[in-house]
């Protein structure tokens, strides 16, 4: 089998298509979450902490000199991205949990009949006595 035929079989199986769809939807979902965090969640938090926008939080490592811009450590953008990640991760967890709860649960296997319990020595002796009495009577 040639390499091209192997690739065609792999691509046609649906794995590549499923992966592509997942990546496209994931990217779109990421944009939605980023907008939600940046435009809806962070402004009220910024107001609560004194009107500061998290994106603007930075430490100046080197002041701007002439045409060279300042060198900044943008920890506010990092905090924003971190919050985006946690919201995405929580959303994905809830989606997976919801999908798993909708899956049909397998029916429990019918219980196997338990092996009969062997008679106790007393029961064995009583059965022998009963059989002897039947033979005499």
From TrEMBL:
Topological type in the membrane: Multi-pass membrane protein
Main location: membrane
Keywords assigned by UniProt, alphabetized: Cell inner membrane, Cell membrane, Ion channel, Ion transport, Membrane, Transmembrane, Transmembrane helix, Transport
Gene field: mscL
SUPFAM superfamilies noted in UniProt: Gated mechanosensitive channel
HAMAP family in the record: MscL
Tagged with keyword Nucleotidyltransferase: no
Name listed for the protein in its UniProt record: Large-conductance mechanosensitive channel
Quaternary assembly: Homopentamer.
Residue intervals passing through the bilayer: 12-33, 78-96
NCBIfam families for this protein: mscL (TIGR00220), PRK00567.1-4 (NF001843)
Localisation: Cell inner membrane; Cell membrane
Family: Belongs to the MscL family.
Function summary: Channel that opens in response to stretch forces in the membrane lipid bilayer. May participate in the regulation of osmotic pressure changes within the cell.
Lineage, opening ranks: Bacteria, Pseudomonadati, Pseudomonadota, Gammaproteobacteria, Moraxellales
InterPro entries xrefs: Mechanosensitive_channel_CS, MS_channel, MSC/AndL, MscL_channel
Species per Swiss-Prot/TrEMBL record: Paraperlucidibaca wandonensis
């Amino acid at each position: 089998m040639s390499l091209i035929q192997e690739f065609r079989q792999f691509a046609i199986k649906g794995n590549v298509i499923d992966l592509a769809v997942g990546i496209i939807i994931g990217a779109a979902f990421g944009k939605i979450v980023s907008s939600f965090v940046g435009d809806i969640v962070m402004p009220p938090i910024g107001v609560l902490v004194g009107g500061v926008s998290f994106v603007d939080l930075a430490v100046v490592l080197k002041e701007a000199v002439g045409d060279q811009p300042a060198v900044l450590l943008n920890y506010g953008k990092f905090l924003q991205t971190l919050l985006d990640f946690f919201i995405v991760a929580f959303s994905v967890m809830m989606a997976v949990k919801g999908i798993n709860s909708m899956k049909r649960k397998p029916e429990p296997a019918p219980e196997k009949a338990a092996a009969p319990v062997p008679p106790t020595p007393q029961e064995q002796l009583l059965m022998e006595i009963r059989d002897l009495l039947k033979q005499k009577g």
